[in-house]
Structure formats: structure tokens, C-alpha cells
């Protein structure tokens, strides 16, 4: 369990949020052109990083807004929080 | 077998106060080269090595383990064994394992304390009833024992369950697999380790894999904290860390690693003589031979390798336990822990060759790998030795995520994720 700093509501317990998985997976612009391999890559393949991961969360029991966080999956420490559409932090 | 365990050896060792039992396995340094290397010294990895040596005569092999054998999910699960899965492919896979369990203690000359005390799955709403009845029929068509019980029969089989219609999620029925049950998880790892070691397998502990060396699309060996080891075949059985190893080889996997928690209570006298699972309210419970209630919780929904889960998950599970078993209301919990489970999108495992020659993966067992340990090892050994899957694990290839031929077992997995 950890605390997440929602960019809209401030610090809340993680149980108020729902994890939305790996961030920055871009939906294919031309779905009809995709090969089976490309569909598998988009739908199923994940980095599943041990270390710094960029991921999406939603404040289900709060403002219900989506945003991104940067979290170290080896110890659950949150490095950064940024809104949807914002550029991910580079450091 | 050099040091066969028997009543005779027990009596003999009693005279020296049990201080002179021989080591169950050696603690060797790695050789420069092996015919095959298994990465991961949990139950599945050790079973793979055991069957490679026993059934495929590959004895110049090693198991490399980052920590100590059986220290990961093998020693962290709730030890439930059953085979009542929905689809034909899963039924074949899990019942293959269950049949090996039935003779495993004799085969290994090691008491794995396999106890066929039955596993009951509860239904709490009409859709559960329909799903469980469907699964019962599917099981019986596949030769797996399964019966559907109504509420009275559930109460008769496990009298401490609260079957009052007034509770939030009343018990409407359930299924029972009588051949299912539990086993001692540590003993499974130790029994396979001892058996594999006896046939010449090197079990190398405290040896972390740092890299996989390949020449084009062919593997050449592994970099470890104990140096480079050459090999032509690598079987990866690294559970929650499968993606980490895959990344070293430049391979993509459809896995997410998440914390799964369990807890045990203080020991009490025998009170529940079976295993009861409930998918809908998410609580499952059995009692260990020491008398502790063994309780399983659900997975957290975020990726983590921290072996810690969230308190609210435990709280939700205990709420459900208390509603179903009011008799446990004053029990105190002794220990709580987490393991990292690698979950596939279809809640079925991968036992497969890969696009890299000589690299094999056995992963994606998610929340329910323990039950499959012997079958998984047997089929993975077959896949590695013959460079071809056995017919029982052919459906569990890595290519199913491209072809779309998934084996969706979210309903039978019984752990919410």
C-alpha cells in the first residue's frame, strides 16, 4: 500500500485508485492495416518492467480522472505524477 | 537411491538423535558447460530438471537459482491442488498433474503430504450457479470428477459455512472435486531437488542470472553472478521474474507481474477438513496440518515486484471470510505475505518454444501454478528434450497471442484478477 498524489485532489491512499497498466501504448491509427503480429504486440505484449515504469491510474473513488505516474515497481516508490497529454518526465 | 528414507532409516537415525542425516542434495559450484540449464529453482524448475534426467536421460544439466530453492512462490502459495478447469486443453494439463500428484510421494521417496480432502467452489449468484454447473458438465466430459451441490449439500459437506439466505452474498450452491486437495509446498521443492541431485543434476543456489548470450537467433549460454556458463538449451521457469529474463534475451512476453497475498491464523484444533473457495466474494480457506487456517486473498491490480500487497485486499478477503464463517470472528492472524505472480491475459500458462533457438519458457501460471507443478515439469522437460511440445501443452504455446487461439480460464482460475 502506498500514497498517490493525485494531480487534482492531492495525496490519497492507493486503495482509492485503480491501476490502468502500462502508459503510452498508442492505439493504432489504421487498425485495418495491422498484421496479427502487430495486433498481438498492441493488445497483449507488455514491458512488465522491474524498475522504473510509466503507468496510468484513475482516481476511482475521488475525481474519477485519469493521469500518469512514474513508479519504481521494485519498491513501489513513486517518482513523478503527470497529467494525461503531458510529456513524461525524462529524469 | 543412496539414502532411501524408510521406517528403518528413521529408527537407525533415532539412535544418533537425528544428528547424522545425510545432505539431501549437494551444493556444487557451476561447471563451464551443461547440456541444458534451468533458470529458477522453484517447484516447476526442479520438477523440470528431475524429469529431464529421469525420462530423457539428460543428466549433465543444472538448475540455477537466485536465492534458495523453493523460496519464491513455491513457499508462498496456499497449496491448493485441483484440476476442475473449463476447457479441454486445461483439463488435460491440470489433470495430468493431478494424476502425478497421486503417486508423487512414493515416486520421490519423499512425503509431500498430498491430501485429497476435496475442494469446494461456492456459487453466490445465479450466474455463478450457471457457470459452475457448466464447468461441472465440462469436467465430467473430460473424465474429471466433479459434482454440483445445492445449498443443503454444501452445508452438509462443510457444516461451519453460514448458508443463511440473509447474508450479503448467500450460498446458492457449489461444486466439489473430491480428488482435489492440498500438499506440503516445501516438501515438493525438496523432494524434486533430492531426486534430481541423485541423478546428477547440479542445483546451484545464490546464483543470479545477469544475461543471456546469443549468437543471432541461437542461445550460447548465461552470464551469472558465478560467471559465464555455456549451454545450448535454456529453460526459463522464473515465475514473477519471467519478463526480466525475457528482456535479457530481447523477447517480448504478454505478462504482468502482480502481488498475490496470503495469510495464516494462529493454530487451532481441526475445524475445516476440506478446501473451500469462493470466486465471487473472493475468499478461500483450508487448514494446515499444524492447525493454522490458510487464507488466500486476491491480486493487486498494479505491476509490482516488491512481494508486498495492499492492506485493503486483505481486509476485503477477511470481510468475506467472516461473513461465510462467523465462527472465525475471534481468530487472530499470525502472518501475512505476498508473492509475485506472472499473469497471462487469458489466465492460462505458457509452456513453449520461442523464436530464439534453444530458449524455452514456462511461465504465466499466474495465481494457480502450484497445483500443476509435477505436470508442468514433466511437459516442459518433454518440450526441452525434444524441441517439440507434448500434445498436452501444445495449446499453451506463446504463438496463441498472435493467432488468437486463447485458453480463457478466468472463470476457473478462482482468484480475482
- The number of strands of chain B is 20
Order of helices and strands of chain A: EEEHEEE
Query: How many structural domains are formed by the residues of chain A?
Result: 1
What is the number of helical segments of chain B per DSSP (H or I, 4+ residues)? Answer: 12
Poorly predicted runs of 5 or more residues of chain B: none
Mean pLDDT of chain B: 96
- Helicity of chain B, in percent? 25-40%
Gyration radius of chain B, rounded: 21 Å
CATH superfamily of chain A: Folate-binding superfamily
CATH architecture of chain A: 2-Layer Sandwich
**CATH class label of chain A:** Alpha Beta
Total number of β-strand segments of chain A? 6
Unreliable runs of chain A: none
Descriptive notes:
The complex is a heterodimer of chains A (91) and B (417). Chain A has one helix at 36-43, and strands at 3-6, 10-13, 18-22, 52-58, 66-72, 77-83. Chain A has 91 residues and is mainly beta. Chain A has one domain (3-83): 2-Layer Sandwich (Folate-binding fold). The longest helix of chain A is centred in the middle third of the chain and has 8 residues, at 36-43. Chain B is of the alpha/beta class and 417 residues long. Helices cover 29% and strands 24% of the residues of chain B. Chain B contains twelve helices and 20 strands. An eight-stranded mixed β-sheet of chain B has the order 6-7-5-15-16-17-14-18. Chain B has a six-stranded mixed β-sheet with strand order 9-3-2-13-20-19. In chain B, a hairpin with a 4-residue loop joins strand 15 and strand 16 (283-287). Chain B is globular. The relative contact order of chain B is 0.18. The mean pLDDT of chain B is 96. Chains A and B meet through strand 3 and helix 1 of A and helix 8 and helix 11 of B.
Provide keyphrases for this structure.
heterodimer, A: 91 residues, mainly beta, Folate-binding fold, four-stranded antiparallel sheet, two-stranded antiparallel sheet, 1 helix, 37% strand, B: 417 residues, alpha/beta, eight-stranded mixed sheet, six-stranded mixed sheet, 24% strand, globular
Amino acid at each position: 500500500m502506498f500514497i498517490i498524489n493525485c494531480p487534482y485532489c492531492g495525496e490519497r491512499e492507493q486503495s482509492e485508485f485503480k491501476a490502468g497498466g502500462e502508459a503510452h501504448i498508442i492505439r493504432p491509427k489504421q487498425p485495418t492495416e495491422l498484421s496479427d503480429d502487430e495486433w498481438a504486440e498492441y493488445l497483449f505484449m507488455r514491458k512488465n518492467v522491474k524498475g522504473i515504469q510509466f503507468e496510468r491510474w484513475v482516481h476511482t473513488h475521488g475525481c474519477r480522472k485519469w493521469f500518469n505516474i512514474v513508479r519504481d515497481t521494485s519498491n513501489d516508490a513513486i517518482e513523478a505524477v503527470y497529467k494525461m497529454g503531458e510529456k513524461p518526465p525524462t529524469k | 537411491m543412496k539414502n532411501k528414507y524408510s521406517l528403518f532409516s528413521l529408527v537407525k537415525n533415532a539412535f544418533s538423535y537425528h544428528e547424522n542425516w545425510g545432505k539431501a542434495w549437494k551444493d556444487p559450484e557451476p561447471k563451464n558447460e551443461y547440456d541444458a540449464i534451468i533458470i529458477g529453482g522453484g517447484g516447476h524448475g526442479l520438477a523440470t530438471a528431475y524429469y529431464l534426467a529421469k525420462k530423457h536421460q539428460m543428466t549433465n544439466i543444472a538448475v540455477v537459482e537466485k536465492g534458495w530453492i523453493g523460496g519464491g512462490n513455491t513457499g508462498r502459495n496456499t497449496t491448493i491442488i485441483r484440476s476442475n478447469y473449463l476447457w479441454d486443453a486445461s483439463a488435460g494439463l491440470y489433470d495430468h498433474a493431478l494424476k502425478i500428484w497421486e503417486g508423487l510421494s512414493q515416486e520421490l521417496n519423499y512425503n509431500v503430504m498430498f491430501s485429497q480432502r476435496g475442494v469446494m467452489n461456492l456459487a453466490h449468484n445465479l450466474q455463478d450457479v450457471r457457470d459452475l454447473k457448466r464447468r461441472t458438465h465440462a469436467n465430467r466430459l473430460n473424465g474429471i470428477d466433479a459434482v454440483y451441490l445445492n445449498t443443503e449439500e454444501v452445508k452438509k459437506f462443510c457444516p461451519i459455512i453460514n448458508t443463511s439466505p440473509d447474508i450479503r452474498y448467500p450460498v446458492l450452491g457449489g461444486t466439489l472435486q473430491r480428488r482435489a486437495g492440498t500438499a506440503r509446498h516445501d516438501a515438493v521443492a525438496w523432494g524434486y531437488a533430492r531426486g534430481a541431485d541423485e541423478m546428477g543434476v547440479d542445483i546451484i543456489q545464490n546464483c543470479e542470472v545477469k544475461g543471456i548470450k546469443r549468437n543471432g537467433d541461437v542461445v550460447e549460454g548465461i552470464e551469472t553472478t558465478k560467471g559465464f556458463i555455456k549451454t545450448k538449451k535454456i529453460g526459463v521457469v522464473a515465475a514473477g521474474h519471467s519478463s526480466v529474463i525475457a528482456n535479457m534475451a530481447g523477447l517480448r512476453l504478454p505478462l504482468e507481474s502482480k502481488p498475490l497475498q496470503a495469510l495464516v491464523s494462529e493454530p487451532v484444533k481441526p475445524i475445516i477438513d476440506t478446501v473451500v473457495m469462493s470466486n465471487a466474494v473472493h475468499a478461500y480457506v483450508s487448514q494446515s496440518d499444524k492447525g493454522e487456517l490458510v487464507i488466500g486473498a486476491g491480486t493487486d491490480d498494479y505491476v509490482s515486484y516488491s512481494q508486498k500487497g495492499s492492506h485493503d485486499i486483505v481486509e476485503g478477503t477477511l470481510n468475506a471470510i467472516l461473513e461465510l464463517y462467523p465462527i472465525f470472528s475471534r481468530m487472530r492472524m499470525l502472518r501475512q505475505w505476498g508473492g509475485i505472480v506472472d499473469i497471462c491475459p487469458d489466465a492460462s500458462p505458457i509452456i513453449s518454444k520461442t523464436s530464439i533457438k534453444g530458449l524455452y519458457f514456462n511461465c504465466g501460471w499466474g495465481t494457480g501454478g502450484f497445483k500443476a507443478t509435477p505436470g508442468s515439469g514433466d511437459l516442459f522437460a518433454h518440450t526441452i528434450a525434444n524441441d517439440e511440445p507434448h500434445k498436452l501443452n501444445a495449446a499453451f504455446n506463446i504463438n496463441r497471442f498472435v493467432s488468437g487461439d486463447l485458453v480463457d480460464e478466468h472463470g476457473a482460475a478462482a482468484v480475482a484478477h
